[in-house]
Design goal:
4-stranded antiparallel beta sheet, mainly beta, 7 strands
Length: 118
């Protein structure tokens, strides 16, 4: 079969996985911030909230935290699946996520993608 012996295009590493987890308003919902293993890299984020909410990411660099919204600051629709890509830097000390209203996170995954080979 054509392409049968190809090497993988990318090899992701799972950094976080939640299923039916409670998320409080404006509070980090991962127990510990994520740290890129081999920055620069790409974090691929998949999320499906039970209720309509906004999703933000906080990034700690040099001890200072900056929080920004994903999805252009627009609400995520309840029971819908979203995917986001985020570039990481060697200066990122911790990355975490929050919602603007309490909800259940039906599914949440973060995979780190290091490099592509062809």
């Amino acid at each position: 079969m054509p392409g049968e012996n190809r090497s993988p295009v990318f090899t992701p590493t799972e950094k976080a996985a939640l299923f039916n987890a409670t998320a409080a308003t404006d509070t980090d919902f991962l127990a510990a911030g994520l740290v890129p293993s081999l920055a620069p890299s790409l974090f691929r984020i998949m999320v499906a909230p039970l209720a309509t909410c906004k999703l933000s990411v906080s990034i700690v660099v040099g001890g200072a935290t900056d929080t920004v919204f994903l999805n252009s600051g627009a609400n995520l629709v309840a029971n819908s699946l979203y995917m986001f890509d985020m570039l990481t830097s060697p200066y990122d000390q911790a990355i975490n996520f929050q919602v603007d209203r309490a909800t259940t996170i039906r599914v949440f995954r973060v995979q780190e993608i290091y490099a592509a080979t062809i």
